[in-house]
């Protein structure tokens, strides 16, 4: 019995070892189990195994555990950190696997596989979410491009319709202008025919009067034509569509100089006009004063 009790005590010590070990040192426990596994002899007696289970409770070996329990005093710090973390985005720290208290063997490989599978599932979920978001963004981009193309086509169609309407309006203006010119020419020809018939029917005195009126009208028309000719000479077409940037700058400088000369001429003419007006008013006043004095002298002479 002493040998079996010794074997049982050894078995109990091997099984209790994982309970005493802390959770942070989970890696070296498989080695202890590996050392305990090659002893199949104590496990051959299944019936006496449940009997020694209450012995470790009375054994003095697990008594040092309460001495280690006062260590949770620094635990308030993680609570404060937990409160700070609650304000931030919640993050679940990785928890160590729980070791059963019944002394059963822990399969760390299975735990590691489960953790890896869980990480893979989370990673796959993140990848799927990323691809879904990317697919949605691509669909939105394609829809935006189609809207832009559609809007561009609509604007081009609107511009084409506006150009056609502008051309139609221009053509109508030209037709109206041509029709009006033809009507004026026809009216003038009719008036000339009537005048000629009237001249042939009436006497020579009236014809001479009409000729003088025509001459006066012709003089007025020639003055108007002269004015138009002068304005046409001054208003020259630009023709700057084919010019380069440097030539455009030179043309702008030329127009600026020309405008400056025109402004100076205008100022000179205005000054001369003011001077002439002043001279006319002064001369008129002198004439009025002289006429007053001459009237007074003539009246005095008459009295004498």
TrEMBL record:
Q: Which Gene3D superfamilies match?
A: 1.20.5.350
Q: Which GO terms describe its biological process?
A: muscle contraction; regulation of muscle contraction; sarcomere organization
Q: Name one Pfam family in it.
A: Troponin
Membrane spanning stretches: none
GO annotations of cellular component type = troponin complex
Query: Region entry Disordered: which residue ranges?
Result: 1-111, 151-236
Keyword Phosphoprotein among UniProt keywords: yes
Listed Low complexity bias regions: 14-25
Q: Where is the composition biased (Acidic residues)?
A: 1-13, 26-86
An MF annotation (GO) of this entry: tropomyosin binding
Q: Keywords for this entry?
A: Muscle protein, Phosphoprotein
> Member of which family?
Belongs to the troponin T family.
Q: What does this protein do?
A: Troponin T is the tropomyosin-binding subunit of troponin, the thin filament regulatory complex which confers calcium-sensitivity to striated muscle actomyosin ATPase activity.
Q: What is this protein called?
A: Troponin T, fast skeletal muscle isoforms-like isoform X4
